[in-house]
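Schema walkthrough. Field components (list of strings):
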Amino acid sequence: MSLLTVGTVAFDAIETPFGKTDKIVGGAATYIAWSASYFSKKVNIVSVIGDDFDMAELEALRKRGVDTTGIEIKEGKKSFFWSGKYHLDMNSRDTLITDLNVLLEFNPVIPESYYDSDILLLGNIDPNLQMKVIEQLPKKPKLVVLDTMNYWMTPASIGKLREVMLKIDVLAINDAEARELSGEYSLVKAAKKILKQGPKYLIIKKGEHGALLFHENEVFFAPALPLEEVFDPTGAGDTFAGGFCGYIDKSRDISFENMKRAIIYGSAMASFCVEKFGAERIRNLTHHDIEDRVKDFIDLVQFDIVLED
Amino acid sequence: MSLLTVGTVAFDAIETPFGKTDKIVGGAATYIAWSASYFSKKVNIVSVIGDDFDMAELEALRKRGVDTTGIEIKEGKKSFFWSGKYHLDMNSRDTLITDLNVLLEFNPVIPESYYDSDILLLGNIDPNLQMKVIEQLPKKPKLVVLDTMNYWMTPASIGKLREVMLKIDVLAINDAEARELSGEYSLVKAAKKILKQGPKYLIIKKGEHGALLFHENEVFFAPALPLEEVFDPTGAGDTFAGGFCGYIDKSRDISFENMKRAIIYGSAMASFCVEKFGAERIRNLTHHDIEDRVKDFIDLVQFDIVLED
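Field assembly_structure (string):
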């Protein structure tokens, strides 16, 4: 089984109340690939970088079963760079620098060796590029998952985003984006509307408040793990998505019941991610670490009520 | 088994984005009593009202096994009146009117017939009054639960609040209050500090984001039920506390495992409360309604993961 993802591979510089980094490796596809690599046998990345990128990072990914054939290296160009500063509550941040660089001319080309990927995870990029990826695949993967953000819900992009939404199975957005996309404040009402617009499953991410999974008339809620410190939230959503898709890929089961499990595994991966800067914490996990963390989630929510009627 | 509660019995006038009410019956002890009455055989109220109060309301409570002997009626005086307006997100509100009236001279006196109450739930009032209630009881109840708010965390009241905290078992506050009381932003750190200051159990209420229960090194999370409409959140916290204490009273079990169940029942009661104005929705529930709602909570969070090691 294999997972195909398209998204940024980039440099970030991050400042949080706990410290700051120089340029470190980031980007949605980086977090997705590290996270999914604990589950999927093969993770196929489509992305673009400049020749300033640290090629040892690609080698590290390859050692974990990540295929980087689809990462185009633009000679003489710079990689995408983002810099941001988190506020004390870690729920909001200011973007300090966005240098699109190679992203400006990104034209994703899917290598033939990726064609039979079982799951497609469209990382958060321009919906025009996401559509190009979908259109290049000779057959629809077993599951298509779309991550996007409010930036693509403006008049200039929303039309293409809505076209992409018709081609996917699972949409993953945050609570503010669900409200914006649907025009409904109630997340239950928002979900009902959005589930009529393409996706059969909707994941609403609420950060420290957990995540909701909607499907038909069913709803599942997974909490976030209460942590002593959230050191750096960068990439937590991508790490969640990577773990979610990786788990489904590994288990070969796209039922609602299995998606619940996948959300718990995705949440467990995200809970590691925020413990250190960047992707550092999700580079050296063991199978045991992950199972222990999933057990924390089970302990957090399990209760034993026998209904009387 | 019986539950003793002290708190306001009052009039409210409420405005939400969905409508507004004239004076309706409210007050923490009213919500607590209605909610607990579905579980406790006997609910004992200590409160104070003016002779303007609707005495039929007291009769309605008595019909549900609520003992109103401890509600003092001040002749020629007016009942406590609160008026507020909720913002669109329902998480914040403006207080329009607070007429303390009889509350200004409230001096709680516990009838002897209440002395053997098994559980004491101190509703959100001046900690000086809460202490008077504790001191009047000849023996400590099996469980003492304290509800309070940021209003009592100011320099004028915090000293007495800290004294009360030394006499209780369970503290129930919201997330902002837990942060204020502890000086810690992380709720995990806040809980660790607060659990060294008296209470053995800490419930942190997060409104639409659920509730956390902390005890020693354990933590339990209960979600709020995602609802299509939150019609009026007034009294939801009191209804939660009443259901929580009532369930523990009925089940005669103050273990951590049983408190988890009690939090689910409390959350279920709160989810009814917000569906209509004031206490209207929690006046005519059936046992079946409550069990059905608890089943919704089970369905919302249950997942089935078999850990591999």
